[in-house]
């Protein structure tokens, strides 16, 4: 007998973007949306259209481009929000409006300053209005994890009666424990008279590190939609990680009453893409997508895996888009082998010109290091696509950096700005500091460097290194990323990448100031 379907609702582009510093351009959001669609995510929450003109255009663009996934827009329980979301989604092949209002005593009293009856009235009006735009309406009682159960039942019953087809139960502040959250889902589904007319959903935050556990507890109690994000991105400690939810369900089919339609071989590509665009590096020991997720250091573990993989691996690396044979390419590898490797890794290349450019970069990298790993290819293509996603007003032409014992480090850099080469030199506390100071002599951005992070893609001293920087100016926060076998060059690339985003005319206001579930 076939199992029930578990709907995967991805909120990387909405809740994930509310991570401080994770704001994305419309073009970047579209790239991620297309990757999510290729991964067969059921619903893509594309953004919060009322938050800014940029977010409206991003949701509108995704609604027009995505055909195989439902495109969703978030809206508070107000006519202005819902009308804006409806306008953004009107060209979608399949659309959903997700509306919400807080229902916990604390939120109603301190934030909304509304009585429970007023909240109930607004919820009904919001769902009713949303149904004018689409038959697919989701309602969320924000901070449900700290709401009174009797009032939750009243609001949910009224929302379903008004036309809500999905009821989401957000643990907005990550307060619940798995048994508690699962019991809440179970009781709501039992006590709400018309509960059978809606799909119940989970939306769990990770403040206590329990987002995935709470989500799965909800599924085991009857929820048939999970709201999650790539790499667990989201406000504060983040959301339930999509890759962990999907692989837990797929791996433990012996226990799970449902299954997902997600193409798991696309997980690693999506993870790398989101990490590259946001500048949020994935920790090495991160489940499923971390660099060490399928690595074995212990001799006992290595011996066991060599004899039988299942002794220490409950999943195959191939299932999430990696290759079991990681050392596959070198400087003698040809274009066909490179193209075949991209196909094996489920990395899409949109044109012959893009393939040629990516191959040229691969050969440049192969000249610098003897062995090319799958992770190197993911990083190389992610870096390449990031640069190609918008017109660069500033390009790195050359960099010379010198450090000597007892001497002050120096850096000389040449940038191409609007087709004019400009050069500058500077001293600094280190080579990276000198490089950034030299860049600033040319561009004079006056931006504040909020984050500088370095990570190695693979092991070894010739590893491709990734650098992420975060710049802030006038309340606008942007991330930049660059990769190279030379960390100083990678640093310069990341800083220039961030400056291009800072000066890019397609800038947008970050939606973090707005309420969300």
Low-confidence stretches: 505-513
Give the overall shape, derived from the CA principal axes.
Answer: globular
CATH architecture of the largest domain: Alpha-Beta Barrel
Strand order of the largest sheet: 2-3-4-5-6-7-8-9
Protein described:
This protein is of the alpha/beta class and 517 residues long. It has three domains: 4-278, TIM Barrel; 299-387, Recoverin, domain 1 (Orthogonal Bundle), CATH 1.10.238; 390-503, Double Stranded RNA Binding Domain (2-Layer Sandwich). The protein is built from 16 helices and 16 strands. It has helices at 26-38, 53-65, 79-89, 105-112, 116-130, 149-162, 178-191, 211-220, 242-251, 267-278, 299-307, 335-344, 352-368, 374-388, 431-443, 487-503, and strands at residues 4-5, 7-10, 43-47, 70-76, 95-102, 137-142, 166-171, 199-204, 225-228, 258-259, 394-402, 410-417, 420-427, 448-456, 465-473, 476-484. The strands form four sheets. Strands 2-3-4-5-6-7-8-9 form an eight-stranded parallel beta barrel, surrounded by nine helices. It has a three-stranded antiparallel β-sheet with strand order 11-12-13. The protein has a three-stranded antiparallel β-sheet with strand order 14-15-16. α6 links the parallel β6 (137-142) and β7 (166-171). α10 crosses α14. The longest helix has 17 residues, at 352-368. It is globular, with a radius of gyration of 24 Å. Mean pLDDT is 88; it is low at 505-513.
Short structural description:
The protein is built from 16 helices and 16 strands. It has 517 residues and is an alpha/beta fold.
